[in-house]
User: Fold this.
Amino acid sequence: MLTPEFKHRELFETELKTYFENQATFGAAHGRLIEAMQYTMIQTSAKRFRPLLIERTLGSLEEDYKNFVHYALAIEMVHGFSLIHDDLPCMDDDDERRGQPTNHKVFGEDVALLAGDALLNASYEVLLQSYGLDKLKVLMVELVQATGVAGMIGGQAMDVGSITEAEHEKMLVLKTGALMKACIMGPVKVLGVDPKLQNIYSKISTTLGLCFQVADDIQDLGQDGDQAIAIEKPKLLFRLDDLTGRGVALCQKLKDPVPLTELFLWNKERA
Assistant:
């Protein structure tokens, strides 16, 4: 199933292209590193779900996406960093992503590691160059918290460790949901949304992150054999249906419920 339309895709891709064109000034010595960074950012281009989520959040507030395109770029760079590191042999040890060789299979583990680091730092660079102090502080705090120990990296640490079944959902909230939450809460806080409505957006972001991970888990079952599907799929479908219902109900409290409601429904159908 196709991802919902990302109306500002051309603007986003232009800004991404401009960023990498500006890196050309470093010369040939950095060429392979920059090529590795670009490789993963192109790999993520099929969905661009996180920039789309920012667009849909702003749509629900009837606000202009153009003011947050650089925030979307920074978020997507962090996502790219996480994919590179997640695929490394010391982590998930994946050879392919979306039918293409993973970054370290093309560029080697050393360059891939550096490319991930560079994308993380590039996200900060983009924010620092794009926003005034007031907006910058809010957006930077959201991004850093979503990325660090209290967010995605903390969730990844839980995933590679030994966790109980009770801790599994917390791991998902951090590993997958934290960056999605930043997509929503960054613009919401910068725009000074009423605290009660901010709380609703926070609940939407957490619910959507869980929905997204459950849908991914259902898709992964197709690779695990018939017995696993027979046992696990009904439970996961029930969980997804319940979470989607909660998310859609929360969206009805927004100024325009349609943009984010459509993401919940799309996610359910893709499973």
Notes: The chain is about 75% helix and 0% strand.
